[in-house]
Design a protein that fits this description.
Radius of gyration: 16 Å
CATH architecture of the largest domain: Alpha-Beta Complex
Distance between the termini: 40 Å
Helix content: 25-40%
Largest sheet: 4 strands, parallel
CATH superfamily of the largest domain: Spore Coat Polysaccharide Biosynthesis Protein SpsA, Chain A
Structural class: alpha/beta
Number of helices: 5
Low-confidence stretches: none
Mean pLDDT: 90
CATH topology of the largest domain: Spore Coat Polysaccharide Biosynthesis Protein SpsA, Chain A
């Protein structure tokens, strides 16, 4: 069995929405909804929130979640995941978006599948077809794939 650890980056000092991880959605904080949804995955062997904020750290501990502190100077969620994961003994690290309250645990299971079936898999990302309205949305990352379904380019336009 491969050791698969999910890491949820959570930053309080977002420029677009400060405090977002602790915002309530139907009576429960966003970060707790993401964490609880991710725990339903059948393939994650461990789940950790990576934060630079004591309020988030304390809150995650209060509901029984695993959490680690990361450097406050880290600017991206991916870099926060990398810092948290650099001290972990894992075969696979899954970067779980901290603002995905309706996360589907089946998605987490699906992206870990290629690692079980191949020693050469280095990275997997979920993607879905976009519609015409989403094409110009700068908040939606676009992915270009080759004929074999391999990602060749991600676009932020």
């Amino acid at each position: 069995m491969i050791r698969t650890i999910g890491v949820i980056p959570a930053r309080f000092a977002s420029t677009r929405f400060p405090g977002k991880p602790l915002e309530l959605i139907a009576g429960k904080a966003l970060i707790q909804r993401v964490y609880e949804g991710a725990t339903l995955s059948k393939t994650l062997t461990e789940l950790i929130v990576a934060t630079d904020d004591q309020r988030i750290f304390d809150f995650v501990k209060s509901f029984g979640g695993n959490v680690v502190m990361t450097d406050v100077d880290i600017q991206t969620g991916s870099d926060r995941v990398w810092q948290a994961a650099s001290n972990l003994d894992a075969d696979v690290i899954v970067n779980i978006q901290g603002d995905e309250p309706l996360i589907n645990p089946d998605w987490l299971d699906k992206i870990t599948e290629p690692f079980k079936n191949s020693n050469s898999t280095e990275m997997v990302t979920l993607a879905k077809p976009i519609n015409e309205n989403e094409l110009e949305d700068k908040n939606i990352v676009k992915l270009v794939k080759d004929m074999n379904g391999n990602a060749i380019l991600d676009l932020h336009f």
